[in-house]
Amino acid sequence: MNITVRFAPSPTGHIHIGNARTALFNWLFAKKDGGRFILRFDDTDLERSRREYADQIEEDLLWLGIRPDKTVRQSERFPLYERAVEKLTEKGLLYPCYETPEELELRRKVRLSRRLPPVYGREALKLTSEERQAVEAQGRKPHWRFLLPNFDDDPFSPRRTEVRWDDLVRGHQTVDLASMSDPVLVREDGTFLYTLPSVVDDIELGVSHIIRGDDHVTNTGAQIALFRALDAEPPVFGHHNLLTTASGEGLSKRTGALSIASLREAGIEPMAVASLAVLIGTSEAVTGCRNMDELAERFDPASSSKSAAKFDPAELAMLSRNLIHTMPYEEAEEQLNEMGISGPGARPFWNAVRGNLEKVADAAFWWRIIREGPGETELSDEDRSFVREAFDLLPPEPWDRDTWRSWTESVKAVTGRKGKALFRPLRLALTGKESGPELADLMPLLNRDTAMSRRP
Fold it and tell me: Structure pTM?
């Protein structure tokens, strides 16, 4: 089978790490089998959809390492949906309804009071053409429902009708269509709800596998019925568990919680985001993968838990730090160049400082220290006198990683200082900081004249 998957965000806000989980599940699933990944913008809600959000989503996906094979926008595909409406209407599977939300809520309460399932009772099917005309003469416009195949001959006598599928994540699943209301596919203003365009696009684009959050499990039964009503074979479905905050709250594009854009701005590494988004809530240990190939090897949708996965942003920061501390120069080179860190000394500099960085951008601070010095340093009179004497003992060039050790041994022999009393003032004089990268690694990045310029 030629695998084709899709990620279908609504461009109504910034995508967050929970959305990234869905995108990455699909991307990795396709990547492992040489399949296709389609980015489909579900932008039929023309009032709330924004092009700037769509552009940001594309940028976020590229930052994560996801490069779609095809990008489509539902707002440009309305003729396809209109033809599907005609087809369903001709088959007698789409019918007009005129109830207001208040009327529907009242009927739901009545059914509950009678211990009946709170599903739509298909009252609109009983209207004659004259009655429909009379309702429309009052100014009401119909919304259109899909008639679920959950009855034999009488739509007012639904029977248990099981839709079954083998879920990529959850295993064997069953949904009873008799427990559901006929879904609304077209609103009163003629615009389409999610279900119809989604199914039509999946058919037209040849989507073979749909991987999405487990909040869609119940919807899948009705969607499978719609695929068949449109004379198409349903794709394979998979429903992964959702991500929540550490306190159990859901994530929302509208609030911007843990948006990919904000994580990028905070300096979090993209593979830290990808690793956590994919591995948390699975049987795999959550560790940072260096690249998508490594993450793909560890990815198994069936390993996802059936319960929501909670995570702490602090864990994300830790993964990012760990990746930076072992990051090869080649991976950091582009970012370093953008900060003006380049030339023959860039590689040894990166290897010297990476173990002390929270984010790659922090390298700019240490580059300035190496190139320009720490500026004024606060030393006691006693330490200042000691540092001056120590700097007079700086060894001749060339300097290497042993220079720091040989210098401090000479200083110790002459001054008698040792331990913190020896090392702290020297570090402060050279870097202006009490902690940081190993001075054995920093000394070769300096020359003797540069170091002597820091003599207080």
Answer: 0.90
